[in-house]
From TrEMBL:
ANK repeats lie at residues 75-107. GO terms for molecular function: nucleoside triphosphate adenylate kinase activity. InterPro entries: Ank_Repeat/CDKN_Inhibitor (IPR050776), Ankyrin_rpt (IPR002110), Ankyrin_rpt-contain_sf (IPR036770). This is Ankyrin repeat domain-containing protein 42.
Length: 132
């Protein structure tokens, strides 16, 4: 974990200044680093393609009818959620142009726009209608 000149980590400073949202975010990042096996479920190939920004693979899966543009994974997320969360603007744009339902919420109650906002993916937020 990075430290500032005084030796403080981001988590230390968040705790010191009672920034619960920052602490929660840092805990989630820390968990992801310690548990990479939980990161992506390979049973959902369209989601993996969207997550990785692999537009060619995603197009092939959807255009050949292997999966739906609105297919949901075990956490209720669509490929749009995955693309938005990882900042894959071209993938997200293609999904929007091909009729993805941007109102679908995942098991955390988030739309693709909410996911983009949580991860600060400004390009994706713009595609999804701006920050309103």
């Amino acid at each position: 974990m990075p430290r500032n000149d005084q030796g403080d980590t981001p988590k230390n400073l968040s705790q010191q200044f009672y920034k619960k949202d920052c602490i929660d975010y840092l805990n989630a990042v820390e968990y992801d680093l310690l548990h990479p096996e939980d990161e992506e479920n390979l049973a959902f190939p369209a989601h993996v393609a969207a997550y990785n920004g692999d537009l060619a693979q995603l197009k092939m899966l959807i255009e050949t009818g292997v999966v739906s543009v609105n297919e949901r994974d075990d956490k209720g997320s669509t490929p749009a959620h995955k693309a938005a969360g990882n900042g894959h603007v071209q993938v997200l744009q293609w999904l929007v142009e091909n009729g993805t339902n941007l109102r679908i919420v995942n098991s955390a109650g988030e739309t693709p726009k909410d996911v983009a906002r949580r991860f600060g993916r400004l390009g994706c937020i713009a595609i999804l209608g701006g920050d309103s």
